[in-house]
Amino acid sequence: IGLFSQYSHDLKTPLSMLTVPLEQLVIEDDSVPVPLRLQLEKIRTAIYSVLRTVTHSLDAARLVTRRQKPMLIPQDFTEFVRQVADVYSLVFESYGIRLKMNLEPLVICEIDPIQFEKILNNLLSNALKHNMPGGEVLITLKTENHRAVLLVSDSGLGPGTEPGRRRNRNPWAFSSHGFGLSIVRELVRLNRGTMQFSSRTGVGTTVTVVLPTVPELAAAAERGRRHNFNFTMHEVELMAAERNALSRRRRTGDESGGLQVGR
């Protein structure tokens, strides 16, 4: 893990440094010709994809060796979930899937914001990737017996096998680079939670995450440092790019590259 960590750091640092001038050229410099801007956007997306893969691989290695420790911070979990979902709403809309939320207000939990952002990204990206245009995803958050119960339900094809990788026969699905559910379950466990998975053919899939609540820490959560959700922004940008690439392949009749993905 030490050698792998050093390798990952050596790879991520120069790639991260490349993203800054690319962002300036693609977003801020209006003098860049459109054809060149499109090529730069492709390069930027490719860099983010490599960074995502390296980050996921490093996190998985840390979990396997028990070296990843959570930093639990009191959070307004309702607002945390809402902010991640709001970022995803645009890509859901472009995919033709309704994203609905039914969130109980002011649910206070102690979570590691970085780890839980990745958990929510996995659940929402899976709900999108394993759904169909015209489908629906419902995010529900409620409290039961001093526990926060988060459900992410999709109307996808189902069924799935968990833990492990899910075979997807959805012709609209695109590639998956995220954590498998077994690794997400471990991240949930590190945050003192549990996760359950259910899937029915023709009905869809529901993932349930249960966490302890700490309402007495509401004031501390309000004073806490706000999370920036940069990881989510990059994930959504990559998913949008992959979705656009798939749409282009379908329009041109090119289905090469394989569309079988796993949760």
Spatial separation of the terminal alpha carbons: 25 Å
Proportion of residues in extended strands: 15-25%
The major sheet is characterized as: 5 strands, mixed
Q: Tally of extended strands? A: 7
H and E order: HHEHEEHEEHEEHH
Percent in helix: 40-55%
Q: State the helix count.
A: 7
Gyration radius, in Å:
19 Å
Average pLDDT: 76
Strand order of the largest sheet: 2-4-5-7-6
Q: What gross morphology would you assign?
A: globular
Structural class: alpha+beta
Regions with little confidence, pLDDT below 50 for 5+ residues: 161-175, 255-263
Question: What features would you describe in this structure?
Answer:
The protein has seven helices and seven strands; from the N terminus they run ααβαββαββαββαα. Residues 161-175 and 255-263 have low confidence and may be disordered. The radius of gyration is 19 Å and the shape is globular. Helix 1 (2-28) packs antiparallel against helix 2, helix 4 packs antiparallel against helix 5 (181-190) and helix 4 (113-129) runs parallel beside helix 7 (230-252). The strands form two sheets. Strands 2-4-5-7-6 form a five-stranded mixed β-sheet. Strands 1-3 form a two-stranded antiparallel ribbon. With 263 residues, it is of the alpha+beta class. Helices cover 51% and strands 18% of the residues. The protein has helices at 2-28, 34-64, 77-95, 113-129, 181-190, 218-223, 230-252; strands at 73-76, 98-103, 108-111, 136-144, 147-154, 194-200, 204-212.
